[in-house]
Fold:
Amino acid sequence: MGTPGQASAALAAGMRPVPEIEWPIKLTPRASFHLGLAALVFASPTVLDPADDIAEYGYVTVLTPEQTGDHRHEDQYHPPYEGACVVAWFHPPTLDQDYSIEFSCTGVGGSSFTLDTGDGAPEQQAVPVTSGYTTTAGVSISRPLHPATHEWFHFTLSSGGYWKLTACEIAML
Structure:
């Protein structure tokens, strides 16, 4: 069986060095984790297609000119399933460093996103209305992190309206 010293030496010999971290860490539906540091968890998406880099919550129907009563096509946006969200998990490698977690998404104008970290103070971000018709607009919502422990931190993003996640970026400040 060997001694504890031999076991430690064998384990050390088999371990590879931890690779250098390239900042910022960008997570997407296609690349949804960074080993040992960060991951995205998609809860109840309507469409999750890593091959096409799509995470979509809710769905769109296209109304024809006959349905709208005038000479234009119109997109009709439907909300996601109840409880649908994306959760970003992050394990900070050092405690003496501040970080920023930023989500980039597209939402329906007039709706809003909620970013919750479980600290009792969820943050709201409104999606701007870009025209008289119901349209979508890009939104970025971020939160700083000042870790005091080496635990996993979670950031939950949700919306009551149709939305798509583009990316989640974790940066050192």
